[in-house]
Amino acid sequence: MENNKIRVVIIDDEPITRMDLREIMEGEGYQVLGEAADGFDAIELCKEHLPDLVLMDICMPLLDGLSAAKVIYEERLADTIVLLTAYSEREYIDGAKECGISGYLVKPIDEKSLVPSIELAVARSREMNRLRKESEKVAKRLENRILIERAKGYLMTCNHMSEPEAYEHIRTISQKKSLSMRRVAEIILTKVGD
C-alpha cells in the first residue's frame, strides 16, 4: 500500500498532538487534508474531504470522538477511523466496537507502531468496504429478480400468459422504452395496488 495515496484528517483537541501527528503522517508520505479540535468539526471536515483515514481522540469538547465516529461511520464519510486516546478502559473499547472503529491506539503513541497499525486498519477497512459493496450488489440483483418474478406472476395470472411469455413481455417493454426490467416490473406492479 502506498502511503501517499492515503488521505488523512486529524482530530484532537490538543494543538500540540495535532502538530505531532501531522508531522509523523506527512513524514511517512500521507496526505493530511485538515485538522479539527472537536467532534462536530470532525464530521464537517469528513463531509468536505471524504478521507481514507480519520485519526481521532475520544475525549474532546462539544462532541466526543465516539459520537463523532458513529456519525462518520454511519454516513460513510471516511473509509477508516482509528482512535488515538489516553483511555484504555473497557467501556471506551466496547464503545469503539459499536461505532465502526478500525483501530484503537493508547497514548502516548509509539511512532514505530503507529504506521503499521494504520496500514493494517486501512487495508482491513478497504477489504470490508469491497465486501460490503459486493454484498450490496448481490442484494440489489436479488431484489430486482424478486420484483421481476412478481410482475411475471401478475401477467401470468391477469393476462393468462405463460412464464416465458410474461418474461418476454417485460423484456420487450424494457428494450422499447429504454427502461430497466426492474422499472418495467415496478410499473406493472403498480396495477396491483390500484
TrEMBL record:
Chain positions found as 4-aspartylphosphate: D57
GO MF, one annotated term: RNA binding
Domain ANTAR residue range list: 128-189
Domain of life: Bacteria
Gene3D superfamilies from the UniProt entry: 3.40.50.2300, Winged helix-like DNA-binding domain superfamily/Winged helix DNA-binding domain (1.10.10.10)
Range of residues in the leader sequence: none
Name under which the protein is recorded: Stage 0 sporulation protein A homolog
SMART domains, alphabetized: ANTAR, REC
